[in-house]
Amino acid sequence: MTKHENRGLSRRQLLSHSIAAGAAFMVGAGFVAAPDAAWATEVVALQPETMATLVQMARDIYPHDHVPTEFYVIAVKGYDTAETAAEIEAGVAALNGAAQGMGHANYLAMGWERDRVDVLRGMEQSAFFQKIRGGLVTGLYNQKAVWPLFGYEGESFSKGGYIDRGFNDIAWL
Amino acid sequence: MVAKFELTDNSVTVIIGTGAGGGTLANELAQKGVKVVALEAGGRYLPEDYINDEWESFGQLAWLDKRTTSGDWRVARDFSGLPAWIVKAVGGTTTHWAGASLRFQDHEWKALTNYGKVDGANLLDWPIDGAEMAPWYDLAEEKLGVTRTGGREGLPGNNNYKVLEKGALAVGYKEVHTGRMAINSANRDNRLACQQTGFCFQGCKWGAKWSAAYTEIPNGEATGNLEVRERVHVAKILHDDAGKVTGVTYFDADGKEQTQMARIVCVAGNSIESPRLLLNSASEMFPDGLANSSGQVGRNYMRHVTGSVYGVFDKPVKMWRGTTMAGIVQDEARLDPSRGFVGGYELETLSLGLPFMAAFLDPGGWGREFTTALDSYENMAGMWIVGEDMPQETNRVTVNKDQPDQFGLPSPNVNFSDHPNDVAMRNHAYAQGTAIYTAVGATRVFPTPPYPSTHNLGTNRMSEDPAKGVVNKWGQTHDIANLFISDGSQFTTGASENPTLTIVALAIRQADHIASELAAGNI
Ligand SMILES: Cc1cc2nc3c(=O)[nH]c(=O)nc-3n(C[C@H](O)[C@H](O)[C@H](O)COP(=O)(O)OP(=O)(O)OC[C@H]3O[C@@H](n4cnc5c(N)ncnc54)[C@H](O)[C@@H]3O)c2cc1C
Ligand code: SF4
User: What pTM was computed for the model?
Assistant: First the structure.
């Protein structure tokens, strides 16, 4: 993590660093952002690169290519608190340790999902992995804004149900 | 006018729990002029209060008190603190239920006789049969307004049903229809017809589905003979030196302990809480718990052989639209041991919203195998298996003396392991469900494991012989004449049908019996 802990990086260096590492994140002092600025989040208790790693981990656990990263950020944002920071930092350090054990600089530096998933499989039984995975089940899929990306329509009572809106409209059978 | 009774009034009948069993019994007794105090741990929620959002509704209605699990069922691993998905509210789990309302088949009342002895199973015949229950089923179907009975129309089939129907007919099934449902297919009983909103499991916001919360309870209250005390948790049933029950103690909404006297006590807390209450009421006179001379209290816990099959298609289904349990295949409900198991099963459509699908499709699952399934959520159809499971003595509810709940009362543990007959049936059903969806072009199929139990049965079972069960054919405990069991825990065996119509029919019948015994001065 040593390189990431260098706080004085210019925006250009940050960008080039991210690209060099093959990751989809810009990590700065107190924030993590998408290289194209599609989203950004400030961190309060976690190291910015910890948050970036956590977001990548979330994506690797529940990868949906059509779901923008901002929703994964929302799903793990709750861990960025003083109470949880130590546990998360330790968990991410273990993740990076496992990545290094496989010859990579850190988790984010692993270009292929396949390799990152190998690391995750190796720590599947750990309390840290289970906490993150378990939290994502509601943290990711219970975001109302995510539902339309899966076609799910949520409640219909306010629209009078589907009685006149296609409860039996299947046409391809 | 809503009645109000004194704590010291020892002429009342106390009913614990206001769900399918307790809620029905309370109303039926009140209609007959019997004074009733119904004690309900949950609060009162009506259609305007229901939330059509799966997790929010879960937080509003689910029973979340401390429970533990053991045994080799997967629920013990994936949901160790949540053996059952049931409701804590006035009206009980009839708030959540989907409304499927089926009578037992005649042979199912006599499982031991008709299936023969099955190794490891504690099979027994019910002390009643289909002929005896027929008139009570008639009354229950009328009360619930069950479709396809009493001249009522069936519900229209939604997309999920259409997929099931076409696949089922293609593989040769004949008994395929939109079910016998306690859901209005036309306006009835001052309640609307189904508006096909989905979210039947979260409480029907139109009141189209029967729930004790807005039928039995207010109807009973209107007689002036029923007082419902909500948010009160019954801790113990009391008895005198003669071994008759005399009342109950409960924690009221403020956590204060109260004692309500009673002439009769009826227990209807669902099949985990009911035996727990009997066990937690142990005394010097009854050291193993009330009504437990047989040692069967808490044993023979049944939950139906369940599981789901979800199929993914190359085009949208939108299974969440409309009634959750929108149709049924009944051909496999027959008794036919040549399939490799005794008992039968039904296949019924089911859908979960995206949030619950993520939690229940493959609990603990992750990675692309899992997420590509959810990517096809819109193109999924779903069905649920409900079949007869084998009663086993070791599948049981016990109490954890060292793990108290929020009131300091020993919490329940639910131990469950599948019987080989259950496994054989589930595998058969997975294969048939897969064949149904494959027949209409499914590109991928998921044999999904059982959810936390929604059908909880058998832990105070009915028996002719007092040594083999807890209650007689009226639901009256063999040991204590003025103590009754009025919920699904009476079930001797589970049959392949969803249980609630039978729970309601038994409650109507029990009310008739209690009222006439009271009038005759026998209890
Ligand atoms: C999602 C879902 C779908 C279902 N769909 C169907 C279906 O389609 N068809 C069908 O037949 N069945 C269905 N069921 C099952 C059905 O809901 C139950 O079988 C039925 O409600 C059980 O009735 P009961 O009287 O035994 O218990 P419940 O209805 O659960 O009532 C028990 C009540 O007792 C209260 N209680 C418990 N302990 C105490 C205590 N110590 N003090 C005070 N109060 C207490 C509880 O709060 C609860 O309100 C479904 C269940 C679920 C969860
Ligand atoms: S689909 Fe019908 S029964 Fe189910 S909740 Fe909606 S209106 Fe009620």
Answer: 0.95
Sheet of B245-251, strand order: B233-239, B245-251, B257-261
Q: What is the mean pLDDT of residues B186-214?
A: 97
Ligand nearest to the CA of B326: 2
Distance separating alpha carbons of residues B266 and B165, to the nearest angstrom: 42
Strand partners, B248: B237, B260
Q: Report the separation in Å between the CA atom of B378 and the middle of ligand 2, taken as the mean of its atom positions.
A: 20
Q: Which amino acid is at B13?
A: T
Ligand 2 centroid from CA B499, angstroms: 20
Contact A92, A54 (CB under 8 A): yes
Residue B243, CA distances (Å) to B8, B11, B238, B240 in order: 19, 17, 9, 5
Would you say B140 and B505 are in contact if contact means Cβ atoms under 8 Å apart? Answer: yes
3-state secondary structure of B471: strand
> CA–CA separation, A137 vs B58, rounded Å?
15
The 10s digit of each residue's pLDDT in A149-163 is: 999 999 999 999 999
pLDDT given at position A28: 82
Query: Residue B8: CB partners within 8 Å, gap ≥ 6?
Result: B261
**Which residue among B97, B104, B406 has the greatest number of ligand 1 atoms within 8 angstroms of its CB, and so is best to mutate?**
B97
Quick one: tokens of B455?
A: 């059908």
Nearest Cα neighbor of B329 from B311, B348, B343 is: B348
Ramachandran assignment for B146, one of left (phi > 0), alpha (psi -120 to 50 degrees), beta (any other): beta
Cα-based distances in Å from B411 to B67, B69, B403: 6, 11, 6
Specify the pairing of strand A31-33 against strand A40-42: antiparallel
| Mean pLDDT of chain A, nearest integer | 87
Using CA atoms, how far apart are residues B266 and B288, in angstroms rounded to an integer?
Answer: 19
For B206, counting Cβ atoms within 10 Å of its Cβ (0-12 exposed, 13-18 middle, 19+ buried), the class is: buried
Helix A127-139 and helix A82-101: axis angle, to 10°?
Answer: 120
Q: Does B107 touch chain A (CB under 8 A)?
A: no
Contact status, residue B268 vs residue B487, Cβ threshold 8 Å: yes
- CA B219, CA B164: separation in Å to the nearest integer? 38
Q: Tell me, what's the ipTM?
A: 0.93
Query: To the nearest whole angstrom, how far is the Cα of B44 from the nearest Cα of chain A?
Result: 21
What confidence score (pLDDT) does residue A23 get? 52
Distance B459 CA to ligand 1 centre (A): 14
- Spatial contact of B264 and B37, defined as CB atoms under 8 Å apart: no
- Ramachandran sector of residue A6 (left: φ over 0; alpha: ψ -120 to 50; beta: rest): beta
| Sequence-ordered list of residues with C-beta below 8 angstroms from that of B385, at least 6 positions apart, any chain | B305, B306, B307, B308, B309, B345, B346, B347, B426, B429, B430, B433
Q: Which of residues 306-335 of B touch A (CB under 8 A)?
A: 315-318, 320-322
The answer on pLDDT for A26 being more than 90 is no
